[in-house]
Amino acid sequence: MPNNNRINGVVKTKRILRKKKPLPKKKKVKCKANLKRAIERDKRCLACGSNKELTVHHIHPRSLQGGDEMSNLMTLCFSCHRIAEDGAYVDSIRVTAKEFVIDILEYYPEMFAEAIKEMKNE
After folding, report:
1. Residue ranges covered by each domain of the chain
2. pLDDT class of 88 with cuts at 50, 70, 90
3. 96, 89 contact by CB (below 8 A)
4. Architecture of the domain made up of 33-121
């Protein structure tokens, strides 16, 4: 009688199937009211002046403990937000995301004084 545990010379092993525990969901603490207030405060993209496809950019990313305080939020259009996240080339010169954001913040020193100091010290 053939051994049922062997198939083509390979030993069949019993696999124990365990029910996987679901991963805990990350808690997103977002203050949507402040995001809306930032757009109402700025009313346009602070980089180019557009009032279309407005988004809110966190000056200090939430992943680096940046919060949703009004002093950490700035309104940018979709295109400028991409530059603020990834950097870009302007007239064949590489502009980093940090340089881009600092340039914008310096136009509004009364609104972003603390953020300017922190970004220049990094």
Report:
1. 33-121
2. confident
3. no
4. Orthogonal Bundle (1.10)
